[in-house]
Structure formats: structure tokens, C-alpha cells
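New to this. Help decode both lines:
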Amino acid sequence: MTAPTPEQLARVGDWIRREAAAKSLDEILAWVKERQEQLIASAQSLTEVQLRAAPSAGEWSPLEALKHVVEWNCQVSEDVLHACLTGERPGNPLPTFDAALESLVARQRETLESVWAHVSAAEPEAFLDLKWEHPFFGMLNWREWFLFLGVHCTDHANQIRAASPASG
């Protein structure tokens, strides 16, 4: 897998900011849910052997990629739900989950449901001055991080599909 260029990362970061500002919270949720389901479908389409096979030395297996997404999305969602309601970010450490497909799928769905329960109760324009650093896209506010959940699912769904023997 090739690494994105700084220009590509800048374009994606700009897109995240534009879309998060332009879309309603309902639209962001629908977009993120669609990408979440694509991620899940990509993982569920693989056999247990395919899920655990790394495409090459040093790369994640599809199951490791899914585990990464769910752990990060869970942590980001916790920050988003606090930031949108209180203007504070807890910044808790990344959780660690067992690498079992169906428990990861359940946790991902539960995480999105939980963050939505809080985001849907938030004032859409509240606390947007609170931003925290994304390792590739710079400083993002809670709406941008909420939208990023879908970007993250898409990126790793593509990775999982690329690791599938059918894509080779």
C-alpha cells in the first residue's frame, strides 16, 4: 500500500472541514453509517483464514485493520460526545479490544449509536472553537472529527478489500 502524499492529505483535510461545516448532523451521521457498513461488509466477506492473513510482512491483517478502526473510532467518539456537549475533551487513552470479528462489529455499531445519541442532543454550532490534533489532518473540531469517523472507515475498508485474495 502506498502512503498518501502531503498534498493528498491536505486535500482530504480541507474536504473534511468543508463537508463538516456544510452538512447537517443528520447528513454526517448518514454518511458515516454508510461507510461503517461498507467497512463491516468488507471484513465479513472474508473467511477466518483471510481475516488473519497479513498481505505482506509488516502490514496489518484485515482483522488487525478492523481492530485498529474500532479502537480509534471508539476513542474519537468518546472525545466527540464530550466535546459537543461540554466543550471539553477527555482525551482518554486508546482502548484495547479483543480481535474477534463479531465483537468488533458489535462494538463499532454500539460506538456510533452512542456518539449519535449525544451528538443529536448537541447544539450543532456549539464548542466548535475546541479543536484537537489529528496526526495527518491537523486541528479538527468535534463536527470534523465526527465526519472523520466515516473517512477512517473508508480508508481501512479499502485496506481490507486490498488485502483480500479476490482483489489480487
Summary: Helices lie at 6-22, 25-44, 48-52, 62-86, 101-119, 142-163. The mean pLDDT is 94. Residues 26 and 77 are 16 Å apart (CA to CA).
